[in-house]
């Protein structure tokens, strides 16, 4: 098997816009054929990053290398048309006065007519959108417009495809199927892609790598499983799920808390931040006493709100087992020790 080759190398990208650091030393390397899902809260710099890669925004510092060629930085600037980068905008930006087929052909003006027709027919066939090709954008549903926009972005066979919130305009029901279809197509074509979203759940299930961004910086990157189960930072832990923050302090080789003791590395920085997901709590005879403050049954999931002595905030516990607990009842709660997450809280203010 061939070694993967980095096709997008983003090195220490910085860009100030309107006095804000939209990009602040952002670095990431993406392999050929890799699908990266870039996620972060609104305003963290996701769109600016895509625009810099596409060449429709400049850099203050840093360098972008695409396919081995320096395209931005060190006084180099390669024009967007020369970059072999496709861009799919959040609102699709289809031309209203062109049919679906003409929209798809739009980026192929420099090809001769026969080759262009062939290319357009090929992508229409691949996406199974033949029935839409003579229609105008206003005659298409949101899902159909999304497919035309995708076909238009893919028609020039870009080495890299950038997609800004490509599924956010779709209904919930449609979003899942369009997302799977789009990913399957990108994989079949071997396209390297960066897909932007602000939805944590979507990020975890889209693509090979999740890259979490905050205030113009990369917080961490890894597979969806890794960033969810073993986040390296408290910011990532809290971005991808609700959390219980539990006070804890060092006691020898352990972090001691009202919910028990957890192993702590000797060199772990202090103060300690102990974070526990609602699903990491369970009821057991030898747990810590807790009073049920609230209980909500949600079909497959039961949620309990539990007051524990020594905790200012009640704990949220979720389980797929129905405990049958009643409000006011005293229960005993424990933590799956391997799921307790311990961080250093000294940088919390700057990271949230
Ligand atoms: N043209 C501009 N002029 C001034 N400030 C800008 C400009 N473009 C972006 N910004 C600022 O830069 C920061 C990053 O913006 P950007 O649009 O890249 O974020 P984003 O993560 O894509 O947000 P969203 O998810 O809301 O689209 C924001 O604080 C934004 O207000």
TrEMBL record:
Molecular-function annotations in GO: ABC-type ferric iron transporter activity; ATP binding; ATP hydrolysis activity
GO CC, alphabetical: ATP-binding cassette (ABC) transporter complex
Classification via SUPFAM superfamilies: MOP-like, P-loop containing nucleoside triphosphate hydrolases
Residue ranges annotated for the ABC transporter domain, each copy included: 8-240
Cross-referenced PROSITE patterns: ABC_TRANSPORTER_1 (PS00211), ABC_TRANSPORTER_2 (PS50893)
Keyword field: ATP-binding, Cell membrane, Ion transport, Iron, Iron transport, Membrane, Nucleotide-binding, Transport
An annotated GO BP: quaternary ammonium group transport
Family annotation (InterPro entries): AAA+_ATPase, ABC_SmlMolc_Importer, ABC_transporter-like_ATP-bd, ABC_transporter-like_CS, ABC_transpr_FbpC, Mo/tungstate-bd_C_term_dom, P-loop_NTPase, Transp-assoc_OB_typ2
SMART domains: AAA
PANTHER family: SPERMIDINE/PUTRESCINE IMPORT ATP-BINDING PROTEIN POTA (PTHR42781), SPERMIDINE_PUTRESCINE IMPORT ATP-BINDING PROTEIN POTA (PTHR42781:SF4)
Family statement: Belongs to the ABC transporter superfamily.
Protein name: Iron(III) transport system ATP-binding protein
Provenance organism: Devosia crocina
């Amino acid at each position: 098997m061939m070694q993967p080759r980095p096709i997008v190398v983003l090195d220490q990208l910085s860009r100030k816009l309107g006095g804000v650091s939209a990009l602040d030393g952002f670095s990431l390397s993406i392999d050929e054929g890799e699908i990266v899902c870039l996620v972060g809260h609104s305003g963290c710099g996701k769109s600016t990053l895509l625009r810099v890669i596409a060449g429709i925004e400049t850099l203050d510092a840093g360098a972008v290398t695409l396919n081995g060629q320096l395209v931005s930085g060190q006084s180099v600037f390669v024009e967007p048309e020369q970059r072999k980068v496709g861009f799919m905008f959040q609102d699709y930006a289809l031309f209203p006065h062109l049919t679906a087929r003409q929209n798809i052909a739009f980026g192929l003006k420099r090809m001769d007519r026969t080759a262009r027709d062939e290319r357009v027919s090929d992508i229409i066939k691949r996406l199974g959108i033949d029935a839409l090709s003579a229609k105008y954008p206003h005659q298409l549903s949101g899902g159909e417009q999304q497919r035309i926009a995708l076909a238009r972005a893919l028609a020039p066979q870009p080495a890299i495809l950038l997609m800004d919130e490509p599924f956010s305009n779709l209904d919930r029901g449609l979003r899942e199927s369009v997302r799977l279809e789009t990913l399957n197509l990108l994989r079949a074509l071997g396209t390297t892609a960066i897909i932007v979203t602000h939805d944590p759940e979507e990020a975890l299930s889209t693509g090979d790598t999740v890259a979490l961004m905050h205030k113009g910086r990369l917080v961490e990157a890894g597979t969806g499983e890794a960033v969810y189960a073993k986040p390296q930072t408290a910011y990532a832990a809290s971005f991808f799920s609700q959390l219980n923050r539990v006070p804890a302090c060092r006691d020898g080789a352990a972090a001691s808390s009202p919910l028990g003791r957890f192993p702590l590395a000797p060199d772990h920085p202090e103060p300690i931040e102990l974070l526990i997901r609602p699903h990491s709590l369970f009821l057991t005879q030898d747990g810590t006493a807790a009073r049920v403050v609230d209980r909500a049954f949600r079909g497959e999931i039961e949620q309990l709100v539990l007051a524990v002595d020594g905790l200012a905030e009640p704990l949220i516990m979720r389980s797929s087992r129905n405990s049958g607990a009643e409000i006011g009842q005293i229960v005993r709660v424990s933590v799956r020790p391997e799921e307790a997450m311990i961080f250093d809280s000294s940088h919390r203010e700057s990271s949230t």
